[in-house]
Amino acid sequence: MPWSIYEQLGIGPLKPTGVVIQLADRGLTYPAGVVEDVLVREVFELDCKNKLEEDFLDNLEIEDKETKVFHVARISKKNFTVGQKVLLQHSKLKFFPGKLRSRWLGPHVITKNFANGAVEIQSLKTNNTFKVNDHQLKEYCKGFQTEHIEIMDLENPIL
């Protein structure tokens, strides 16, 4: 019986025990003691079971709401503007994709925004236009320019 129910019943002191219980995950637990000759009514057991079940469901509902609020607060809002360069997620199914294969295609230019989150983009390579969901896009960041690289010659150290 759980410790909380034992305290509610106020039965009296526990008799010490040397029993060790091995759990399904191979962990060990040591009972606090043993209570013998306790009369328990079925109605009490059902009330406890129903109360525990209600508490469990209430806690589960609260946890679900808190988890949803936590994740919704961390969703990044993407605000794309017309003319902005973006990358499109490569969504073709591959059975053995390479780890270093790029999952982003582009760059593409945004030509139109729709109210429902859809975006019309145009490929810079093929000039084809098509509609995609804004969740499949990310901002295009141009790489570093190689024009202003300073070259330093290293000398062998003098010993």
Any overview of this molecule?
With 159 residues, the chain is an alpha+beta fold. 25% of the residues lie in helices and 21% in strands. It has 2 helices and 7 strands; from the N terminus they run αββαβββββ. The strands form 2 sheets. A 5-stranded antiparallel β-sheet has the order 6-5-4-3-7, with no helix packed on it. The protein is elongated, with a radius of gyration of 32 Å. The termini are far apart. The mean pLDDT is 81.
Span between N and C termini? 78 Å
The count of helical stretches stands at: 2
CA-atom Rg in angstroms? 32 Å
Low-confidence stretches: none
Q: Identify the overall geometry.
A: elongated
Structural class: alpha+beta
Q: Strand portion, in percent? A: 15-25%
Biggest sheet: strands, sense, closure?
Answer: 5 strands, antiparallel
Helix/strand order, N-terminal first: HEEHEEEEE
Mean pLDDT: 81
Strand sequence of the main sheet, in spatial order? 6-5-4-3-7
Quick one: how many beta strands?
A: 7
Tell me roughly what share of residues is in helical segments. Answer: 10-25%
